[in-house]
TrEMBL record:
Coiled coil: none annotated. SUPFAM superfamilies: RING/U-box (SSF57850), TRAF domain-like (SSF49599). The keyword Iron does not apply. GO terms for biological process: proteasome-mediated ubiquitin-dependent protein catabolic process; protein ubiquitination. The keyword Disulfide bond does not apply. This is RING-type domain-containing protein. PROSITE patterns: ZF_RING_2. GO terms for molecular function: ubiquitin conjugating enzyme binding; ubiquitin protein ligase activity; zinc ion binding. Keywords: Metal-binding, Zinc, Zinc-finger. One of its GO terms (cellular component) is cytoplasm. Residues 22-57 form the RING-type domain.
Length: 241
């Protein structure tokens, strides 16, 4: 391999990737592979609604592709499953979990888009509380109302976006604040929320779970704890950083 020029290797690799490209979705074939009589490859899901190959109009073969072809396809590095990303994945790579091309829906309005577009959407449509090195933390003071309320806010914490949803339930005498990370790549730092007990310097610190599969980080305060947590104004005090 050392005596093969890099350009030759690159050209050969690109040729293999083109050969293994599905003729329907134009992505590299995944999992179960189907082929037509002329050898064009398809993802099994893409082939389901087809009677003939859209490229050569030949019928699909009943038998599975040759073991050699299957091994070649399996040996090629898979592409990220999110379209427009184009990143090749290494074994055990968790890139797709944090990919900036994952579809994301806004919790404030009906907007849906990609992780890469969240910043533009947030700044254009919503008020964003920014936490940066010059502003090392934003404190939130929530006075417990006499009715059920739900408030949604957007935070930018050192470049990472969060939706913060606060819910007061007077009937159940509970307060919830939930942080949803909006990731555009794997975070490199840890994030925390602190809850300060009213009238004291005692602080409870919670580490946020940044795994998108888990979805949310909920700070739950039952009513019987309010007397120990509310300050003299009847408010809860907490901070994210």
């Amino acid at each position: 391999m050392d005596d093969i020029p890099v350009e030759v290797l690159r050209h050969s690799f690109q040729s293999l990737m083109e050969i293994s490209r599905c003729s329907v979705c134009l992505e590299n074939v995944r999992a179960e592979v189907v082929q037509c009589a002329k050898g064009h490859l398809f993802c099994n899901n893409c082939r389901k609604d087809l009677k003939k190959c859209p490229k050569c109009k030949k019928h699909f073969v009943k038998d599975n592709p040759s073991r050699y072809a299957s091994k070649v396809v399996a040996a090629l590095p898979p592409l990220c499953r999110y379209k427009k990303c184009g990143k090749y994945l290494k074994p055990g790579d968790d890139h797709e979990k944090y990919c900036g091309y994952r579809p994301i829906g806004c919790k404030i309005c009906d907007w849906t888009g990609l992780g890469h577009d969240v910043l533009t959407h947030m700044k254009g449509r919503h008020i964003v509380h920014v936490i940066s090195e010059n502003n090392p933390g934003i404190g939130f003071q929530n006075c417990i109302p006499n009715k059920i309320t739900t408030t949604v806010s957007v935070l930018s914490v050192y470049g990472i976006f969060f939706w913060m949803i606060e819910r007061h339930d007077v009937e159940k005498q509970t307060f919830n604040v939930t942080f949803y990370p909006i990731l555009n790549g794997k975070p490199q730092n840890d994030f925390y929320v602190t809850l300060t007990s009213g009238g004291t310097h005692f602080v409870t610190k919670y580490k946020l779970d940044m795994d998108p599969k888990n979805g949310e980080n909920r700070l739950f305060v039952p009513g019987f704890m309010f007397p120990n947590l509310l300050d003299e104004k009847g408010c809860l005090n907490y901070k994210i950083f």
